[in-house]
Design a protein that fits this description.
homodimer; alpha/beta; 8-stranded mixed beta sheet; 38 helices; 34 strands; 15% strand; disordered C terminus
């Protein structure tokens, strides 16, 4: 049988060359084959850097190992052997035998770095024979035995699955026997005893230690392959959202030793400071040590700059390599090196992990150093990290101390970033009271509800025991920029006793805790909190000149703004939020939730008065209508109606000036920028207290019987409030509320205009499912506008008023062509649209949604990242349909997704005009919009030249072109509909089965 | 100024001619202009029947009256006057003056009959002058004064809005004064006194009686125009779903008098018996009387056939006219006539209202008489009435008595048709217990839940105080064919006291009530119930030969089956329902809700055992997975897992044989017909008791602590259960349940097959939103099937097994092309699809949905009639997308809409293969499917010839044609997508505002 040429699984590197360099066109593709480590080694080898020779077994070999029932694919063994031969030839050594043995390291290396997750075997090739050769060759018996015992332990533990603690036990007993405190205190005899002891472990287990080096290698490679799917690695990939990889590559490389004496050493370094981004060589090393010693923390590593004195030649070489690598990669590198008897070897280079602070600084400075262009700089900074720039931070030293000394109270979800410290309170009212006294409080709740918003607003941070990343607490806290740890399930909160427990720890009301919304950790006691520099500058507490971070951040965002095509607005419910939004770079307000203001101060009382009579007023009015011309009946109903109707009107009259003032504040702050005001949205029951205690208090405050409150709560109860009486349905039932709000908006805008402002109000009707709802509500608004104009003697409004709607009910999206006839803008409410399209309630989905993501049913939590295939398809449909009847309709999004980078990218792709998100997410949205524009407009995902200036500017011809396309779509769509109708009229033959 | 030719608003009839006959091409269009009455008068006049001359003012004149600020449109006055002149000329009389005065009747008449809703004025033209002329002319002073006082009262009441009781008061006091018991006892002097008294009312009111006849006419016409929008008429149109009409026509017609002596009379008649449909002349008359006397019930009218003796000439003429009218209209007519001094006059003919029994008989017999063809016969019977054929009925005499004697307890919604009588119980368990003792019970609940299903099944009928036409009670009751009155809001039910109150009436447990699910009325006490003949025949309690109704019904349905293209299946949860479904003509089971069986007998205990441990088992299994290789941890978790896992498996093992038996029953009953079994669907909390008392009982039954039950209920609580953990999400969390159900289906089918049956099982996965859910659940099913096959040594299944899904989540519809790759069939679950697409919860929407329909936001309750523009659009999209990836996919619907005629029509239009509905709706669906086919396939809405046989038969080429169309759609769709992508890449210019 003719032998088929086997696939190439193994790529050699060393001696200034690297086979892997031709395996793919881009570095990214190369990494998918050779893994990150293998790609770096090939790169460095090819560039002539001193890399110990070796070879990389591809990620695809690992994948085939799995599909091949955990056996090597055909050809792999031959290729490995051939490559060993190459190493032997290049070094003049032999593998597993002879006087000059090759020892190798076997290391994992996937396309994406997964530090510590997979297995490594060092010193492979040692056996009883080569041990002697090493002793001979190095004249260093201690070194040889030390290497051997390390290998025996690693191989036994990692490859054969022997118990780790058995090895520890042997080591400790030998150390005890020899009176050694540290491993390094062991004498040669001690090490020999350890080797004997280790061999005993193998014997007792019935698993023999293979003396054959190739057998060692084969088993070790298998162990690395298998470690790709150990639970730890799987979990890491899930947590870090690493998808679509085939497996891990395996790097087999000549061992070099940093522990061969004082002229040897090992270290890790970054080409820039990974914490600050400063352009200085940053790293640590230890002489006479192996890599693991640097990490182990027994000896304190030295700063890299001191190497200049210890080994000036190696240091100079390293500095040169540092420059070379940055030029090659045009990015900060994370390197590993070893000095063996005065000779420097490079063991790894990879893109360095960095804080957001370092990412911004490095990107800006690299541009200024002409190392990268603007396009690359803007693409270099992670949108996922960006908002960490604005959060206060816990003092890192104190955090380390707390972690070490059992100071962690609980861990939950990092729901809203930032560090905070304060006194624990369990109740929003206490929070407000204490905050008034100047106390810093942390609000700890089982979960939060709209009643808690006041307390959340004054709290340093919020902790909840239940709820996910999109729970009420998480969403509201993120919106406020308040740090939050959500769903810390270990916390047992006792409201009555005013305690929170976790295991044996107890914290009482008034005691201090600290927390990091970056990590989701809650600590006992006080930890110092540092405010964000950028916020300090924005709030005038620090001069821009004093903050390098602020200056660099500003530069970067300016570049992003040059590239992006999407507008960015903010969701802001009051002047304070609006002010923050502008500082964060928002170009308008995309969503003002008017009802959020209803909770402030006394206005909740007015609104509750309204709620208590609203249904009765409605019912009686209907009776009145039904009474026809029966005068007696009419009089009777009118008599009943008088009191509640007076209360109804009075409540709205009380709310009007308050709302008007709110809007005046927002319009004033926003200047010329548009502000979208949404009419009342949440179901009425959200404005009433659910707990009996609060109900009693409400009754007292209002001077009514508590039974009235209870009845109202009961009346308003809904089985599925999400699908209940809310949104414009309220406005349809109680048009006076819409009218009051419309009047407040218009009067506010007129007042601001008269005071010299330039308001651009937009009134938005929520939860529209059919155009008729919008027509009715639009008429209410327009009638009220006409009234205000008549009262003020105006012929036309002295500003532009737009009336539009949210598209958040699937039916609204499906019938968007009709809805667009009455709407000047759409704002996609993708939170609700996701709930209804996918059939998930945000409040309940936690139970199964994690499983769903885990099982790959949804790639991402659709409440965090817009579900493109489902919800996105409806958005796309609504965009096409909406523009088909109103080509100049303004399209935006104001769900939580507006601040999610992947979702912002989608918004760019479907051609929305803007996204709107919470003020603190505005920079993220700006950056994400820029990155999306670069990715889709210029095909520059992996860097490249900045687009010519004219390509970036909006073309005046674009609108015309868009119209042309729209017309064409309409034409084609007509055909589709005609065909569909034809099909409908000819159903497939009668389905009797 | 040149005068423009005015629009024609008035059409003359009389003297063997009728202008109106040329006004439109079809009778239907003519009615839209002349109204029903006007059209009939024109028809009869043109046919030479003896119709008093007159003229019709069009519906459009009425519409213009409204748009013209309640004034007559230009030209109307002239036209009315010209037509009066025509009447004068034809009769040789003069209007409002002279010795031979014209008296006229002014009658309303819309395109659709609205009996009694609008106004009528008789004897118009009488004044002090013409009164004398009439006395002179007739020599009958009594008649003249009687006519005058009637006119004065009608005109005062109807036209001028004087108080009706003022007239009654005058009449009564004159009668008292003259010692007259009846109106007819009044002497001439008495009548004169009445006339004087009436004139006094006018004077006291300050409104004068116009002596000018044209003024009388003008005011009366205005009154009729205005009565179009009186509250009563508006309500009637709402209740009877009368839409799209312009207004009412007004008919002004020469008065003829049936009260001019013993040679005069008046009557109403039907060309066939409107109760039974029997082909015999049916009617009543009174000699020497006016129309209102026949209705008033003071004198007993005579049967029409006795007229043959009283006035043989008139009777012969009437019989001849009866035949002529049926030949002209090809339908049963409802006529009014008057005999004036021996001369017969026809005053009205219209299509006769009839019971469903009459409708079926008349349609079948008219076909047999060759009066109509089959197409017309099938179209003649109302789908909205059809299911009344199967319901038992309350004795109509006793009902009339109860209505008269204050015997009505409450009125609610006619949620499920049928009459019933029984003892009131307030609790499902009591219902079951009493039913076992042989008692007939009526279950009265505030609302029902799945726990009540057992009680509902044994009850004669169900009454609820809350809930709409699609509430749990209504849906389940309709499914069971149990009469139901839902949402009887006046009922105050006190479970503790075991009483139900309504106003001052109280009914205690054990006392009798009766109810009609036809009318939605609940009566105090016992009323006799008559069973439906058709059901009696189906159940073998009556021979087919003894039931003419059954024979005729059968013929009609056979014709319907010849025409329809849609298959019709039934939703059936057990063998009993399946049996009924087949008797009703179902061609398969479209939906078996397996969980309904969980409530029967002890199986609820098994399932509750499962629920109590399910979450714990899941959690521990996950912990086990996460434990990795930590053996100690693994052992610890395994120890914890042992007991709950045993309970988990045991519960499922207990359910398996029960479910298998259920399915064996269904497959056996269904014969060769397919049966679709849906896997577990409702959220688990529905299987646990919510009331503390029931929780305690559950705990006792199961021998566990009640706290365990409470905790489970609390754990399972969801804020929006509609969007919660249910449907296939349960199967994803607990695949063992799906596997158990799949095994039960397969084992049942194998057993039935082995016993000689021909099962066609279909397994349906509910609530699929993404293809991946279906893939996972499909794999669970297929793996289990493979296991069963292996156990039984089968290489392939000896029957066809289909696996498909419900499309009920909008996302499932949007991604139907993907879903179809894994689904062999779709069944549209339009209940849930409506909830999610429109964003309404069925349980809560009652609050605003009525308003929504009233305000025209939705034309119909979308839970009753499929919302074509929204939900329907998603269905249409899913049909096109589904067929695009799987051209032979089988498509059906199994929501409540499957039994709604308008929705069935839509299913036909979009080309579904079948509809599935509750067994009792199957005939409705069959008829609706036939009518849809006739409407859309042959354009024969208004009758016409039967299609050629070959047109009715399914064409073998149809499939090929459908494929061609699909391919073409795909091509066009591709273009649309490409264009859309192009647009997406070129968003409109950067939206800075």
């Amino acid at each position: 049988m003719a032998k088929m040429a086997a696939k190439k699984y193994v790529y050699f590197f060393g001696g200034g060359k690297a086979e892997g360099m031709t395996v793919a066109k881009t570095e990214k593709e190369r990494k998918l084959i050779l893994g990150g480590k293998g790609s770096g080694l090939a790169d460095m080898s090819a560039a002539g850097l001193p890399v110990p020779p070796g070879f990389t077994i591809t990620c695809q070999a690992c994948a085939e190992f799995y599909t091949n029932n955990r056996k090597w694919p055909a050809g792999l063994e031959e290729q490995v052997k051939a490559n060993i031969a190459k190493v032997e030839k290049l070094t003049g050594k032999s593998f597993g035998r002879g006087p000059n043995p090759v020892l190798v390291a076997v290391r994992s290396g996937a396309a994406v770095s997964m530090p510590g997750m997979m297995d490594t075997v060092l010193n492979l090739g040692l056996n009883d024979e080569t041990l002697k050769a090493v002793i001979e060759l190095t004249g260093n018996e201690r070194f040889a035995y030390d290497s051997y015992r390390r290998f025996l332990q690693m191989f036994g533990d990692v490859v054969l699955g022997l118990e780790h603690h058995d090895f520890e036990h042997v080591l400790q007993s030998v150390k005890d026997r020899f009176g050694a405190k540290l491993d390094t205190d062991l004498t040669i005899d001690g090490l020999k005893a350890v080797v004997e002891g280790y061999k005993g472990i193998y014997e007792r287990s019935g698993k023999s230690f293979p003396q054959d080096a190739f057998e060692q290698l084969k088993l070790s490679m298998n162990a690395v392959f298998q470690s790709w799917n150990n639970p730890r690695a799987i979990k890491y990939r899930q947590l870090n959202d690493i998808r679509g990889l085939d497996g891990t590559a395996v790097n087999v490389q000549l061992m070099v030793f940093g522990n061969m004496g004082s002229d040897s050493g090992t270290g890790v370094a970054f080409t820039r400071d990974p914490s600050t981004g400063e352009n200085k060589f940053y790293g640590e090393y230890l002489m006479n040590a192996q890599g693991e010693d640097v990490v182990a923390g027994i000896r304190t590593p030295q700063k890299i700059e001191t190497l200049a004195k210890v080994d000036p030649k190696a240091y100079a070489q390293l500095v040169e390599i540092r420059g070379k690598l940055e030029k090659t990669y045009k990015d900060m590198q994370d390197i590993e090196f070893t000095i063996e008897k005065g000779t420097l070897y490079m063991l790894q280079t990879r893109s360095g992990k960095r804080t957001i602070f370092a990412a911004v600084r490095a990107a800006v400075e690299m541009f200024e150093e002409k190392l990268i262009d603007k396009v690359t700089a803007v693409q270099r900074v992670s949108t996922g990290q960006l908002n960490q720039l604005f959060a206060p931070v816990l003092d890192s030293g104190e955090v380390a101390q707390a972690e070490k000394s059992n100071g962690v109270l609980a861990r939950g979800l990092p729901a809203s970033p930032g560090g905070a410290c304060g006194q624990v309170v369990f109740n929003a009212e206490v929070a407000e009271a204490w905050a008034k006294e100047g106390k810093k409080v942390i609000l700890v709740r089982i979960e939060t509800s709209p009643e808690d918003v006041g307390g959340m607003a004054v709290a340093q941070a919020v902790v909840t025991a239940r709820g996910g990343m999109t729970s009420h607490a998480a969403v509201v806290a993120r919106g406020m920029g308040t740090p939050c740890v959500a769903g810390a399930g270990d916390l047992q909160i006792d409201y009555a006793a005013k305690t929170v427990r976790s295991g044996d720890k107890v914290v009482r009301e008034g005691e201090y805790v600290s927390l990091s919304g970056f990590s989701g950790t809650v600590y006992m006691g006080q930890i110092k909190v540092q405010p964000s520099e950028i916020i300090q500058v924005q709030d005038g507490k620090m001069k821009p000149a004093d903050s390098l971070l602020f200056q660099q951040y500003n530069k970067l965002m300016k570049w992003a703004d040059e590239f992006r095509k999407l507008g960015v607005r903010a969701n802001a419910d009051n002047p304070r939020d609006s002010d923050r939004a502008i500082k964060m770079g928002a170009e308008g307000v995309g969503l003002t939730r008017t009802e959020h203001m209803f909770f402030e101060g006394d206005r909740i009382v007015s609104f509750r008065r309204f709620i208590l009579v609203a249904e009765e007023v409605k019912r009686l009015r209907e009776e009145l209508e039904a009474a026809g011309e029966n005068k007696a009946k009419i009089d009777e109903i009118r008599a009943k109606l008088a009191a509640p109707e007076a209360q109804y009107n009075q409540a709205l009259a009380e709310l009007l000036p308050l709302q008007r003032k709110d809007f005046e504040g927002i319009f004033t702050v926003m200047g010329e920028r548009p502000a979208t005001i949404r009419t009342l949205d949440p179901p009425l029951h959200e404005f009433l207290p659910q707990e009996p205690g609060n109900q009693l208090e409400m009754a007292k405050t209002m001077g009514i019987d508590v039974e009235m409150v209870k009845r109202a709560v009961e009346n308003l109860h809904e089985f599925n409030p999400m699908l209940g009486h809310r949104g414009c349905r309220l406005g349809i039932s109680y048009p006076e509320v819409t009218a009051m709000q419309a009047r407040a908006v218009i009067e506010a805008a007129l007042n601001v205009k008269n005071a010299g402002g330039k308001p651009h109000p937009e009134i938005m009707i929520p939860l529209v499912g059919t155009v008729k709802e919008l027509q009715l509500q639009r008429k209410v608004v327009e009638d009220e506008v006409a009234k205000v104009m008549a009262e003020r003697g105006l012929k036309k409004l002295p500003f532009d008023l737009k009336i539009g709607t949210m598209i958040e009910v699937p039916r609204g999206a499906v019938t968007a062509d009709e809805v667009a006839k009455v709407a000047e803008f759409f704002s996609f409410g993708t939170n609700d649209l996701t709930q209804m399209t996918c059939g998930f309630s945000r409040d309940d989905a936690g139970k199964f949604l994690k499983d769903y993501v885990k099982q790959g049913i949804y790639d991402y939590d659709p409440f965090q990242t817009l579900d493109r295939a489902g919800v996105g398809e409806l958005v796309r449909m609504a965009v096409v349909k909406g523009r088909s009847t109103r080509p100049d309709i303004k399209l935006g999004i104001c769900g939580e997704h507006g601040g999610d980078p992947a979702s912002v990218e989608f918004c760019h792709m479907v051609g929305l005009n803007y996204v709107s998100c919470s003020p603190y997410r505005v920079p993220v949205a700006r950056l994400a919009a820029a990155q999306a524009a670069l990715k889709y407009e210029y095909g520059m995902l992996t860097g490249g030249k900045a687009p010519a200036k004219k390509a970036v500017k909006a073309k005046p011809a674009a609108k015309k072109a868009a119209k042309k396309v729209t017309a064409s779509i309409k034409k084609v769509a007509k055909k589709v509909v005609a065909k569909a109708k034809a099909v409908a009229k000819k159903p497939a033959k009668k389905g009797k089965k």
